[in-house]
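testing teh design pipeline on a random one, pls ignore if ur not involved
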């Protein structure tokens, strides 16, 4: 059927009130209207939904839209009903409907009222649904979020794999439309093959979001304070903060709330009512920030999200692209900030163990791309677009300078000879190594794989050992983006030389490489101690003065310095400059009791120091701690008062002993007394207690490792930590 230009325009105006199409929408709609299989690759916010909604409204029969998420379907149905007088124009068919509702849906379809029927793939497997759909006119089948078909997609759903057979059962010759917002060349190939749509008209929009600013920061010990500071700088703007775990979502949302940020949590563990309420609050601007797991955002069409923060790095570039794509959909500013530490990657790798080998291999390959993206020092936009099979020129391309690497470029060094060495070694090893193993070959580090191929006996083995492994990894990443090497996906990332690479070896020319960011262990260990504040940014001069004051005051009252305040507390003071008791009680490990008992001299010293050095104290530096654990704290104190066995108290809260001791430490370190004598007496005799007491009295530090060394294995970690709780409780509080 030929479509007149103006009838499409008129329909667009009539149904949606727009006068012009966006990007590729028009040719896509023409392709669908002509009954041809169509494949649409369009980034989030590019207007994908309209590509099938408009033809469905214009054609006779019902269009079936397969979608993976109930929330997504609901939003779309509400939107379509909003453009029609009849609610029956769009329906959902899924497990949430009762018999009466299902009957109504089928009646509206039979009567030709329903133009769009949204279904989950599972609903299409039910026999009675298939039987019914065979009897009605189907205009076309749209498969939304088509990347769910591919094992290489970031969101693989096994039930999507059978869609082709299911569609065949409903009828032959039904036109199909696959739509995705994220597809690497491999995923695209997989989708077309799986749906049997190799003849499809393919439309691929640019993945460039020119208004988004990409930034990666190291994840330090005080990541919460960093996030609060960032959110406060963007006061009044809407934003999403993504975390990996539900527990972290709850904690961070509470920390933001007590620091006067209007924030709500969102994750799949909350009941449906709460989730819907929090989603509405965000859409209606009753709150500024949603702290969420990746369960949030699918189908959230809020155009003015101004920032997306990743507290944890995502597990693939696709996920990252999709989640950051929720910022700046209106074309206004969108700041995408991710906190990165390699420990997060290791954590994600742990999650993969136990999965089938092929799945693990795919997962590792996707994670390595994320590492490369985080550590790269070339344009982040160029890196992302290269990943999606698109070339980008920073000089001429839209948004070319909008990332931290372009704003703060790193030194570039000549690497012509090293590129030649690299490409030659890939060729000489018969293109059988992935990046990590290849680097080992270049620097001369043996492992089982290298030895099995006898590569360690080759003359080129170790020929690049004058440079570090980090240098060679950085070079590989940049040579990949330059197109002289490629990763073979079928073999999970083995490096192959391209024609461009072969030409470079024949005729070498200048190649300037940028040194990568080094996210070292110093920053990395931060994840494990996220509650503490990082000394990395503390004021060293003030730190020294605080230590001297602590020593003086300790001498006066005849106790070791750590009894007054521990080192992490001083570090936090040198970072936040507290000048009142209230502010001091929000410093790590202090609390009200400690602040009142020992704080006076410290507040005075900091107040003088701030005045003398004209220090501008940002309010957002004073990060208030959350009362998150207050219920647990109360529970512990009450049950210790009742002299209940400590292991019973711990197991009642589902904690192991080490975590439970950690909670008790937090209580006594912040100035509250805990009398655990009844338990200590069971564990240690009088002499032993005396010995450990004397040690802590004379020691400069309360570090358990130092105590273990002193006693040379006489006591275990748990015994020493428990006695330290008793000691701090009696001597300090």
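output:
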């Amino acid at each position: 059927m030929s479509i007149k230009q103006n009838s499409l325009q008129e329909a667009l105006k009539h149904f949606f009130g727009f006068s012009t199409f966006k990007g590729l929408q028009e040719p896509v709609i023409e392709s669908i209207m002509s009954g041809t299989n169509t494949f649409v690759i369009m980034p989030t916010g590019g207007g994908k939904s309209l590509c099938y909604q408009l033809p469905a409204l214009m054609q006779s029969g019902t269009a079936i839209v397969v979608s993976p998420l109930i929330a997504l379907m609901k939003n779309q149905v509400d939107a379509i009903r909003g453009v029609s007088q009849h609610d029956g124009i769009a329906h959902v068919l899924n497990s949430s409907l009762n018999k009466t509702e299902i009957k109504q849906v089928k009646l509206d379809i039979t009567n030709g009222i329903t133009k769009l029927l949204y279904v989950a793939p599972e609903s299409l497997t039910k026999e009675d649904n298939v039987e019914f759909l065979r009897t009605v006119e189907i205009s076309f089948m749209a498969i939304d979020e088509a990347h769910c078909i591919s094992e290489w997609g970031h969101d693989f759903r096994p039930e999507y794999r059978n869609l082709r057979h299911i569609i065949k059962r409903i009828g032959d010759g039904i036109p199909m439309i696959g739509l995705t917002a994220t597809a690497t060349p491999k995923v695209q190939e997989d989708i077309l093959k799986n749906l049997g749509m190799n003849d499809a008209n393919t439309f691929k929009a640019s993945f460039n979001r020119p208004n988004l600013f990409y930034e990666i920061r190291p994840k330090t010990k005080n990541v919460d304070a960093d996030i609060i500071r960032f959110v406060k700088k963007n006061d009044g703007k809407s934003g999403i903060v993504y975390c990996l775990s539900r527990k972290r979502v709850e904690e961070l949302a509470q920390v933001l709330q007590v620091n006067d940020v209007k924030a709500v949590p969102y994750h799949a563990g909350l009941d449906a009512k709460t989730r819907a309420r929090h989603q509405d609050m965000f859409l209606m601007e009753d709150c500024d920030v949603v702290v969420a797991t990746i369960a949030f955002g699918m189908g959230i069409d809020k155009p003015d999200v101004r920032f997306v923060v990743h507290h944890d790095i995502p597990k693939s570039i696709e996920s990252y692209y999709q989640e950051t794509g929720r910022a700046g959909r209106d074309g206004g500013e969108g700041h995408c900030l991710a906190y990165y530490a390699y420990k997060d990657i290791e954590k994600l790798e742990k999650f993969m163990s136990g999965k089938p080998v092929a799945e693990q291999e795919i997962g590792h390959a996707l994670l390595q791309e994320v590492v490369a993206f985080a550590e790269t020092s070339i344009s982040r936009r160029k890196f992302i677009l290269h990943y999606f099979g698109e070339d980008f020129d920073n000089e001429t391309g839209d948004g070319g300078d909008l990332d931290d690497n372009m704003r703060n470029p790193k030194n570039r060094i000549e690497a012509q000879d090293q590129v030649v060495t690299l490409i030659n070694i890939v060729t000489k090893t018969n293109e059988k190594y992935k990046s990590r193993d290849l680097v080992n070959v270049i620097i001369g580090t043996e492992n089982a794989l290298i030895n099995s191929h006898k590569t360690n006996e080759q003359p080129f083995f170790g020929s690049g050992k004058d440079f570090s492994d980090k240098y060679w990894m950085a070079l590989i990443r940049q040579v990949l983006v330059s197109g002289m090497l490629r990763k073979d996906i079928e073999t999970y990332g083995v490096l192959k030389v391209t024609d461009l690479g072969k030409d470079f070896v024949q005729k070498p020319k200048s190649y300037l490489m940028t040194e990568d960011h080094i996210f070292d262990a110093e920053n990395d260990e931060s994840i494990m101690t996220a509650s503490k504040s990082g000394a990395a940014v503390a004021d060293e001069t003030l730190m020294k003065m605080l230590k001297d004051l602590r020593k003086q005051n300790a001498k006066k009252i005849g106790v070791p310095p750590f009894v007054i305040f521990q080192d992490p507390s001083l570090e936090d003071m040198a970072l936040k400059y507290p000048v009142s008791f209230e502010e001091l009680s929000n410093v790590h490990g202090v609390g009200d009791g400690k602040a009142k008992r020992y704080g006076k001299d410290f507040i005075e010293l900091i107040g003088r120091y701030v005045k003398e050095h004209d220090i501008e104290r940002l309010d957002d530096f004073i990060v208030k701690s959350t009362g998150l654990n207050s219920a647990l704290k109360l529970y512990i104190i009450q049950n210790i008062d009742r002299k209940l066995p400590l292991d019973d108290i711990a197991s009642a809260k589902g904690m192991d002993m080490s975590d439970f001791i950690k909670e008790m430490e937090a209580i006594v370190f912040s100035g509250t007394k805990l009398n655990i004598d009844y338990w200590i007496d069971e564990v240690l005799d009088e002499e032993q207690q005396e010995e450990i007491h004397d040690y802590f009295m004379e020691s400069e530090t309360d570090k358990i490792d130092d105590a273990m060394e002193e006693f040379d294995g006489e006591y275990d970690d748990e015994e020493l930590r428990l006695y330290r709780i008793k000691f701090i409780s009696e001597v300090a509080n």
